[in-house]
Amino acid sequence: MPRLPAIALRSLPVLAACAVLGLLPASAHAAEIDTGITAWMLTSTALVLLMVPGLAMFYGGLVRTKNVVGTMMHSFAAMAIIGVLWAVCGYAFTFGPTQGGIIGWEPSWLFLTGLDSGIRDEGIPELVFVMFQGKFAIITPALIAGAFAERVKFRGYAAFIALWSLLVYNPLAHWIWGGGWLSGKAIDFAGGTVIHISAGVAGLVAAFYLGARRGYPESSMHPNNLVMTLMGAGLLWVGWFGFNAGSSVNSGLQTAQALAMTQIAASAGALTWISIEGVHHGRASSLGMVSGILAGLVAITPAAGDVMPVGALCLGILGAIGCYGAILLKGRLGYDDTLDVFGIHGVAGIIGGVMLTFFLRPGDRPDLLVQLWYQVEGILISIGYSAVMTLILLALVDKTLGLRMSDDDESAGMDHTLHGEHGYGLLNLN
């Protein structure tokens, strides 16, 4: 056996000490990163972010010409406001070590300082997971904006979503996903309860609190650009593959299952909706098509990684039927949820969250009644907590900064009054 050089022998104690203290070069940790999973999670993160401009286009096309910029600004503002809050403290509150099951907390995670070089057990850098989850935090309050479109002040909206994210989304996400008191009970694969139900209920509360738009329902309030809405729906559908399949935090069998179930449910929802329209109205509409797509996507979200294709078909169909009925009921009740946030996201989220219990994969099926109770419990808690906190926050912002636009400003439109712009460079305010 060849003898080691004297300098190598003298270096052994130093190298041993460095190994014990964790001072060896970072390459010693690089092998822990799974590049395949990391690549997919980077892609998923980008896909979920794509949903936010997709939502802006979807909502922007549905409002009147004078409000298209203001409505789209709601989605883009969420990217800025929640994007900063998530890095400052949102992730620490949501995924930090649980404090009594109520909220997460880890001081070193503020400003993401202690996570810069961390690697998760799944084999991805911690910052990739932080950014992936941050996109969920962004899109949730952006969804709410559709319920009170065309009638809120921008500064009031900005303050409301900041407070709502910190005091509603972060705790709720911690309870179910972050190790809180509901973790391991209700199945919510990608956000049916945490995202869609909470946002849908918040939208319903806001619609009642703020009241109807000026002239609703007597005045004509047709969408300004259904082509843009169709494109927005298409971007949402594409982004939803990252939304659902990325929630496996893997690049394996369950990832493929979640992706396939997402496609099946969205198609089933769209086909069901336009079929109902064909019977009910004698024609299929583009608005019905996109509504059915969203109903199917929302219904499969809590179940995407846990049900089989038949279950995905059924959830897509049930989601479309339920949402179609909810929108008809809205017309009878007369409240002005402008873009049907509760009628689509809230109702389909509830349907998916409850009905997934009956379609779980055979090998993973727990006791039916126990799981059904867990699902109902999670949904009721999401509904109750979101409703109460949303009402409190709306009242707080309304009494301080103001929320509802004046009649004159609302008549002139959000684009001109709040932003000094026109979406199409036109002066037509219809």
CATH topology: Ammonium transporter fold
Question: What is the count of β-strands?
Answer: 2
CATH domain class: Mainly Alpha
Q: Low-confidence parts, pLDDT < 50 over ≥5 residues? A: 1-31
Coarse structural class: mainly alpha
Q: How would you sum up the global shape? A: globular
Order of strands, widest sheet: 1-2
Order of helices and strands: HHHHEEHHHHHHHHHHH
Give the strand content.
Answer: under 5%
Which oligomeric form is depicted?
Answer: single chain
Q: What is the overall pLDDT average?
A: 92
N-to-C span? 90 Å
CATH architecture label name: Orthogonal Bundle
CA radius of gyration = 24 Å
Overall structural domain count: 1
| Percent in helix | 55-70%
Largest sheet: 2 strands, antiparallel
Which terms would index this structure?
single chain; 430 residues; mainly alpha; Ammonium transporter fold; two-stranded antiparallel sheet; 15 helices; 2 strands; 1% strand; disordered N terminus
Describe the secondary-structure layout.
Layout: H1 6-21, H2 27-30, H3 35-62, H4 68-95, E1 98-99, E2 103-104, H5 126-144, H6 154-177, H7 192-210, H8 226-245, H9 253-281, H10 286-300, H11 309-333, H12 341-355, H13 368-400, H14 407-412, H15 414-419
Antiparallel strand pairs: 1-2
Short account of what is shown:
By secondary structure, the chain is mostly helical.
Report on this structure.
This protein has a single domain, classed as Ammonium transporter AmtB like domains (Ammonium transporter fold, Orthogonal Bundle), CATH 1.10.3430. Helix content is 67%, strand content 1%. It has helices at 6-21, 27-30, 35-62, 68-95, 126-144, 154-177, 192-210, 226-245, 253-281, 286-300, 309-333, 341-355, 368-400, 407-412, 414-419; strands spanning 98-99, 103-104. A two-stranded antiparallel sheet has the order 1-2.
